[in-house]
């Protein structure tokens, strides 16, 4: 009886209820798990010690990724049974590998090379066994289709870039979690529009797992950080969503986003990529040091230095990224190179406005002081 019902069940027929259930299930599991993790971390002293680069002044648990992983695992292994099982099981396998490596890194510290190789491994398995890859550049720079090997290598590069970009932006309260929530919401919308139920479900479930995390991440008394466990899992998921969206859009010329998919994807991950490329340029070119050596030159540190609080910094960045995504949707029927130029120009300006404004105020104040001293 149950088998017959499952055989004819199509989530598309009940999509609203289906997605609500995925969100609620992930939310409940995540919400119930966080207090236990915080309590265990405090008892066992599994806490992050504030250092010279830290934006916090007290010992704080860094195991938030455990609850995020656990809630996603529950969703995938239960309601995932009526979705695209093959790709979800491979996705869960990749999440599990990164979960344990991230956990070890949060507790004992892991060599960067080991993390890099693990990221290559899980991304490679997904690319090869599901053939979910970036096939070409959608006509950008005149490139439509890439040779298979180049396509695989470029897709691997995208995975590594996005995973580590989300790790690098995890520097102030709520930023990585809020940007991940925004990215999952934007991608869930795109997957919903293209009727990709499996990806819409997992994106919505990820939102459900992140909402409780943000509640505790912003808390003063029961604070918890995402840690490398959470940032790697979230970064890997968003990278997979982006690659899946691009792959599906290019496979079907009649796709709703066939002429705009790469611009929409770039708009979604604009801030993490902008900050990563900027920080690597500052470290390697300007300061002549290793691009992997941590410092306080991130954009979010810049907002903090201007006097913004953690919440204000996170809110400003998420609002700007949301505006960019909405604009990218409005531009989606433009010629693709024009879309790209508009996104890069507007994005750069929007993220520079606050710094330019404060710089002008500072110069104005200094000019007044000089005039008064004469």
Automatic annotation (TrEMBL):
<protein>
    <submittedName>
        <fullName>Undecaprenyl/decaprenyl-phosphate alpha-N-acetylglucosaminyl 1-phosphate transferase</fullName>
    </submittedName>
</protein>
<keyword id="KW-0479">Metal-binding</keyword>
<feature type="transmembrane region" description="Helical">
    <location>
        <begin position="87"/>
        <end position="104"/>
    </location>
</feature>
<keyword id="KW-0808">Transferase</keyword>
<feature type="transmembrane region" description="Helical">
    <location>
        <begin position="263"/>
        <end position="286"/>
    </location>
</feature>
<feature type="transmembrane region" description="Helical">
    <location>
        <begin position="198"/>
        <end position="218"/>
    </location>
</feature>
<keyword id="KW-0460">Magnesium</keyword>
<keyword id="KW-0812">Transmembrane</keyword>
<feature type="transmembrane region" description="Helical">
    <location>
        <begin position="225"/>
        <end position="243"/>
    </location>
</feature>
<dbReference type="Pfam" id="PF00953">
    <property type="entry name" value="Glycos_transf_4"/>
</dbReference>
<dbReference type="InterPro" id="IPR018480">
    <property type="entry name" value="PNAcMuramoyl-5peptid_Trfase_CS"/>
</dbReference>
<feature type="transmembrane region" description="Helical">
    <location>
        <begin position="62"/>
        <end position="81"/>
    </location>
</feature>
<dbReference type="GO" id="GO:0016780">
    <property type="term" value="F:phosphotransferase activity, for other substituted phosphate groups"/>
</dbReference>
<keyword id="KW-1133">Transmembrane helix</keyword>
<keyword id="KW-0472">Membrane</keyword>
<feature type="binding site">
    <location>
        <position position="167"/>
    </location>
    <ligand>
        <name>Mg(2+)</name>
    </ligand>
</feature>
<dbReference type="GO" id="GO:0005886">
    <property type="term" value="C:plasma membrane"/>
</dbReference>
<feature type="transmembrane region" description="Helical">
    <location>
        <begin position="337"/>
        <end position="360"/>
    </location>
</feature>
<feature type="transmembrane region" description="Helical">
    <location>
        <begin position="15"/>
        <end position="41"/>
    </location>
</feature>
<dbReference type="GO" id="GO:0044038">
    <property type="term" value="P:cell wall macromolecule biosynthetic process"/>
</dbReference>
<dbReference type="GO" id="GO:0046872">
    <property type="term" value="F:metal ion binding"/>
</dbReference>
<feature type="transmembrane region" description="Helical">
    <location>
        <begin position="116"/>
        <end position="140"/>
    </location>
</feature>
<dbReference type="InterPro" id="IPR000715">
    <property type="entry name" value="Glycosyl_transferase_4"/>
</dbReference>
<dbReference type="GO" id="GO:0009103">
    <property type="term" value="P:lipopolysaccharide biosynthetic process"/>
</dbReference>
<feature type="binding site">
    <location>
        <position position="228"/>
    </location>
    <ligand>
        <name>Mg(2+)</name>
    </ligand>
</feature>
<feature type="transmembrane region" description="Helical">
    <location>
        <begin position="174"/>
        <end position="192"/>
    </location>
</feature>
<feature type="transmembrane region" description="Helical">
    <location>
        <begin position="146"/>
        <end position="167"/>
    </location>
</feature>
<feature type="transmembrane region" description="Helical">
    <location>
        <begin position="313"/>
        <end position="331"/>
    </location>
</feature>
<keyword id="KW-1003">Cell membrane</keyword>
<dbReference type="GO" id="GO:0071555">
    <property type="term" value="P:cell wall organization"/>
</dbReference>
């Amino acid at each position: 009886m149950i088998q017959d019902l499952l055989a004819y069940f199509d989530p598309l027929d009940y999509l609203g209820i289906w997605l609500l259930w995925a969100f609620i299930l992930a939310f409940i599991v995540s919400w119930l798990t966080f207090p236990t993790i915080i309590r265990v971390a405090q008892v066992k002293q599994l806490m992050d010690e504030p250092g010279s680069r830290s934006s916090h002044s007290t010992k704080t648990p860094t195991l938030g990724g455990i609850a995020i992983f656990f809630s996603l695992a529950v969703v995938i292994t239960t309601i995932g049974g009526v979705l695209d099982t093959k790709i979800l099981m491979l996705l869960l396998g990749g999440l599990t590998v990164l979960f344990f490596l991230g956990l070890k890194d949060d507790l004992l510290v892991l060599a960067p090379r080991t993390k890099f190789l693990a990221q290559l491994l899980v991304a490679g398995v997904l690319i090869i066994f599901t053939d979910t890859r970036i096939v070409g550049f959608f006509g950008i720079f005149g490139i439509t289709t890439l040779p298979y090997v180049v396509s695989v290598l470029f897709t691997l590069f995208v995975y590594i870039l996005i995973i580590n970009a989300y790790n690098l932006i995890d520097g102030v309260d709520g930023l990585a979690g809020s940007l991940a929530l925004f990215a999952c919401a934007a991608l869930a919308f795109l997957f919903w529009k293209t009727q990709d139920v499996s990806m819409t479900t997992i994106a919505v479930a990820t939102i459900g797992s992140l909402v409780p995390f943000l509640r505790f991440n912003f808390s003063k008394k029961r604070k918890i950080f995402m840690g490398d466990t959470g940032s790697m899992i979230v970064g890997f998921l968003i990278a997979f969503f982006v690659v899946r969206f691009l792959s599906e859009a290019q496979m079907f010329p009649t796709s709703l986003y066939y002429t705009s998919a790469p611009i929409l994807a770039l708009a979604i991950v604009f801030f993490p990529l902008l900050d990563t490329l900027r920080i690597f340029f500052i470290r390697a070119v300007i300061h002549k040091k290793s691009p992997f050596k941590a410092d306080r030159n991130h954009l979010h540190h810049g907002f903090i230095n201007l006097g913004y609080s953690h919440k204000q910094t996170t809110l400003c960045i998420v609002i700007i990224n949301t505006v960019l995504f909405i604009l990218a949707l409005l531009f989606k029927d433009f010629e693709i190179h024009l879309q790209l130029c508009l996104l890069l120009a507007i994005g750069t300006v929007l993220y520079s406005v606050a710094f330019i404004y404060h710089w002008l105020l500072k110069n104005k104040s200094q000019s007044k002081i000089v005039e008064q001293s004469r």
